[in-house]
Design goal:
With 196 residues, this protein is an alpha+beta fold. The chain has six helices and eleven strands.
Length: 196
Amino acid sequence: MATIRRAELNDIPALQEMINHYAAQQIMLPRTLTDLYECVREFLVAEQDGEVVAGVAHFAGRGETYFAARGSGAFCNDIPIRISSIQSISEAVLCLTGINSFHKYSFSGELLSWIKPFWSVRCFGGCLDAMMVARGDAEVWIETIVKPWDLAAPKIIIEEAGAQFFDFSGKSTISGGNAVACVPALADDVRRFLSR
């Protein structure tokens, strides 16, 4: 059984160790104990055998808080959310994040041709685009450069809303350096494009 709770003062040394582990790899910025003690209320702790079992994404400017727990569904402001039922690219909304980095991938030369049949293409940015897929306002989200801590919460929210989550190699991981979320009906099309 997972335990989800607000972080407490006695959690701070472990949080600092985790954060500074990634800082040593230049994945994130280091934090001092003082920094963490001052903002302890910003952290939630979800524990179950080292697996992310809950996630929260908060957009203060929009007044939206998305959250999910493994096996419990996904929610926005306490209202259940689900992916759309759209099954074809011609009706689908595509969200692209990190457009300036697409040139690094072998499929970049075919990007404009591939996106042409989509009903619409949007780019609001990272996690917000991912939540659009989770709440059914978009069907595909592609992120070219991303760190694991940016994906831990969105991954579980996306999956609990019914979408598929994978990196460009097709693995369901937050550590691939890139990410895709999409409705199951379009997953094969996306995977084929990314494998070009």
